Amino acid sequence: MSKAYRVGILGATGAVGNELLELLESRNFPLADLKLLASERSVGKNLPFKGENIAIEAVNENSFKNIDILLASAGSSTSKAWAHKAVDAGAVVIDNSSAFRMNPEVPLIVPEVNPDAAANHKGIIANPNCTTILMAVAIYPLHKIKKIQRIVAATYQSASGAGAKAMAEVQAQASAILAGKKPPTEVFPYPLAFNLFPHNTPLNDMGYCEEEMKMVNETQKIFGTQNIRITATCVRVPVLRAHSEAINLEFAEPFSANEAREILKKAPGVKVVEDWQANYFPMPIDATGRDEVLVGRIRQDISHACGLELWLCGDQIRKGAALNAIQIAELLVEKNIVKPANALVSR
Amino acid sequence: MSKAYRVGILGATGAVGNELLELLESRNFPLADLKLLASERSVGKNLPFKGENIAIEAVNENSFKNIDILLASAGSSTSKAWAHKAVDAGAVVIDNSSAFRMNPEVPLIVPEVNPDAAANHKGIIANPNCTTILMAVAIYPLHKIKKIQRIVAATYQSASGAGAKAMAEVQAQASAILAGKKPPTEVFPYPLAFNLFPHNTPLNDMGYCEEEMKMVNETQKIFGTQNIRITATCVRVPVLRAHSEAINLEFAEPFSANEAREILKKAPGVKVVEDWQANYFPMPIDATGRDEVLVGRIRQDISHACGLELWLCGDQIRKGAALNAIQIAELLVEKNIVKPANALVSR
């Protein structure tokens, strides 16, 4: 008897929404039904899925009645507006926005790290921030062996972090600059092509931006400890869709680079990419479209007896967002945390 | 009685060479004569200077006879081949390559940091690596007040670090990619446009690349201490000509961000660029063509009681190379470390 689920996507037309659709198809998620929800603006559009065209419906109070799992990827305000209504209608919501991530009643899940937390959900499960997910996948296997004490991270974040329009804007900016024209800046406050700037999310009183504080707070929540001290500098770079991160880790005791490498080679969701002879390490263009977080340049920190340095690249839209959400959905299915659509159970 | 000097530029046709010429003109360096030296390949070319065209001469054994200050910017092997010959002929060589930087007999100078070391020269003075210079200018004013214990740096290095051809290649790559074509890779091993990769200099046994070890070793030499532990991750990004760096500093005692900011506002060669309301901080496009190292996002490190985070951008060709060399030349003049061309002293 195979189980099947009625899935809804809220925000199907965005970069992450498109990727969710692709992953539901390519991973053959056990679907009983698929409903695509968006704002009124997108009504009339269709999106292809398994050879069919699925019409986009405007989200409203009655949208969630026949949905078992709602994948929400339409931003924080949309999630705040609709997530509880979906829960009330019986859906489990996997929310890709930041709306509920730090809510103590909402599990924040990276399936490679804290899958067991999913069982504690009260209707909403949050998908972490992209930079947080990528870092968590790469460093948790090390943390399991020897506890991480402190992280100093610097990020190299692609345009996709600001959505599909931002990706197009960087390309349009590059075209304009190459033609000697002024680059358009609608999505980003400053030109990103041939330039870069600190992540333009609001700053707190300590001078950290929201993106940096997500890395701090979400990582502590996912790892289930306040004992990891974290600092980060988040920077947008003119790359299309994979994020990179330079990560400095401090442990309480020495951790050899070779031991770390062997652990990461066997770690779920990680691919070690290191050709020391060819000076070939993870690059955004190689991480694009891939499920794994690519990790390389694993080396002893020469400035700290118990330090390790590593470098990672991961597809921001995929593992950084859509894939992690689908993996959470698969976890719900595998652990019977969500019930299949009874009427549609096939024999 | 004004002093004047006979200056030679070895490698005048490169990106740094061009900038040296521009700076000699714009800063009105007291020239008695200017000789442009290059390989046979460039002979026949002229370069404009103060409204004249100066012919490029092929460098040979007799090139250095009438030169007081030789600015060498043609790479390490050229410097190794000619620097000592220039010294033997009576010139003081300010060498922009890595050839002599770690030689204990050769002062390694950032004029804002260790100008007094210039007096100890034995004919050659080395100009540090670009990433090192930019970091040194920004952090030395803090180190003077409270000693830095450890630095964790991550860099965002522009194409100019690999020369003028590399800058053109990134633009050609961007054009190709936007047209759906394969990007050319002649200077760089991998596409840099819309991509990035760890700095492609040779790696040592510890897994650090040469660029990173330059930041480590040169900073210790310039600051005159082995007691600063330094680690760095150096990364090339698709930016044309200014480098950026995310710098985490650990001190032995707490250092308030406000105190650091006030110190840096008054520091030579530094411009604090921070508009916290507008989320506006140093960017490569703003640092390009400027003399100062732009510093911003100065903040207390929330992961370390004695830590500070800061972000900087600086023109890699200018302060990172040519300007620092010219400032060293100006220092030699100001401190009478090099003798003016006697026959040409004007009254």
UniProtKB/TrEMBL annotation, chains A, B:
<feature type="binding site">
    <location>
        <position position="101"/>
    </location>
    <ligand>
        <name>phosphate</name>
    </ligand>
</feature>
<keyword id="KW-0220">Diaminopimelate biosynthesis</keyword>
<feature type="binding site">
    <location>
        <begin position="41"/>
        <end position="42"/>
    </location>
    <ligand>
        <name>NADP(+)</name>
    </ligand>
</feature>
<feature type="active site" description="Proton acceptor">
    <location>
        <position position="243"/>
    </location>
</feature>
<keyword id="KW-0028">Amino-acid biosynthesis</keyword>
<feature type="binding site">
    <location>
        <begin position="13"/>
        <end position="16"/>
    </location>
    <ligand>
        <name>NADP(+)</name>
    </ligand>
</feature>
<dbReference type="GO" id="GO:0050661">
    <property type="term" value="F:NADP binding"/>
</dbReference>
<dbReference type="GO" id="GO:0004073">
    <property type="term" value="F:aspartate-semialdehyde dehydrogenase activity"/>
</dbReference>
<comment type="pathway">
    <text>Amino-acid biosynthesis; L-threonine biosynthesis; L-threonine from L-aspartate: step 2/5.</text>
</comment>
<keyword id="KW-0791">Threonine biosynthesis</keyword>
<dbReference type="Pfam" id="PF02774">
    <property type="entry name" value="Semialdhyde_dhC"/>
</dbReference>
<keyword id="KW-0560">Oxidoreductase</keyword>
<dbReference type="GO" id="GO:0046983">
    <property type="term" value="F:protein dimerization activity"/>
</dbReference>
<dbReference type="InterPro" id="IPR000534">
    <property type="entry name" value="Semialdehyde_DH_NAD-bd"/>
</dbReference>
<keyword id="KW-0521">NADP</keyword>
<dbReference type="GO" id="GO:0009089">
    <property type="term" value="P:lysine biosynthetic process via diaminopimelate"/>
</dbReference>
<feature type="domain" description="Semialdehyde dehydrogenase NAD-binding">
    <location>
        <begin position="6"/>
        <end position="121"/>
    </location>
</feature>
<comment type="similarity">
    <text>Belongs to the aspartate-semialdehyde dehydrogenase family.</text>
</comment>
<comment type="function">
    <text>Catalyzes the NADPH-dependent formation of L-aspartate-semialdehyde (L-ASA) by the reductive dephosphorylation of L-aspartyl-4-phosphate.</text>
</comment>
<dbReference type="GO" id="GO:0019877">
    <property type="term" value="P:diaminopimelate biosynthetic process"/>
</dbReference>
<dbReference type="InterPro" id="IPR036291">
    <property type="entry name" value="NAD(P)-bd_dom_sf"/>
</dbReference>
<feature type="binding site">
    <location>
        <position position="210"/>
    </location>
    <ligand>
        <name>substrate</name>
    </ligand>
</feature>
<keyword id="KW-0457">Lysine biosynthesis</keyword>
<protein>
    <recommendedName>
        <fullName>Aspartate-semialdehyde dehydrogenase</fullName>
        <ecNumber>1.2.1.11</ecNumber>
    </recommendedName>
</protein>
<dbReference type="GO" id="GO:0071266">
    <property type="term" value="P:'de novo' L-methionine biosynthetic process"/>
</dbReference>
<comment type="pathway">
    <text>Amino-acid biosynthesis; L-lysine biosynthesis via DAP pathway; (S)-tetrahydrodipicolinate from L-aspartate: step 2/4.</text>
</comment>
<feature type="binding site">
    <location>
        <position position="316"/>
    </location>
    <ligand>
        <name>NADP(+)</name>
    </ligand>
</feature>
<dbReference type="InterPro" id="IPR012080">
    <property type="entry name" value="Asp_semialdehyde_DH"/>
</dbReference>
<dbReference type="InterPro" id="IPR012280">
    <property type="entry name" value="Semialdhyde_DH_dimer_dom"/>
</dbReference>
<comment type="subunit">
    <text>Homodimer.</text>
</comment>
<feature type="binding site">
    <location>
        <position position="184"/>
    </location>
    <ligand>
        <name>NADP(+)</name>
    </ligand>
</feature>
<dbReference type="GO" id="GO:0009097">
    <property type="term" value="P:isoleucine biosynthetic process"/>
</dbReference>
<dbReference type="Pfam" id="PF01118">
    <property type="entry name" value="Semialdhyde_dh"/>
</dbReference>
<feature type="binding site">
    <location>
        <position position="236"/>
    </location>
    <ligand>
        <name>substrate</name>
    </ligand>
</feature>
<keyword id="KW-0486">Methionine biosynthesis</keyword>
<dbReference type="GO" id="GO:0009088">
    <property type="term" value="P:threonine biosynthetic process"/>
</dbReference>
<feature type="binding site">
    <location>
        <begin position="160"/>
        <end position="161"/>
    </location>
    <ligand>
        <name>NADP(+)</name>
    </ligand>
</feature>
<feature type="active site" description="Acyl-thioester intermediate">
    <location>
        <position position="130"/>
    </location>
</feature>
<feature type="binding site">
    <location>
        <position position="157"/>
    </location>
    <ligand>
        <name>substrate</name>
    </ligand>
</feature>
<dbReference type="InterPro" id="IPR005986">
    <property type="entry name" value="Asp_semialdehyde_DH_beta"/>
</dbReference>
<dbReference type="GO" id="GO:0051287">
    <property type="term" value="F:NAD binding"/>
</dbReference>
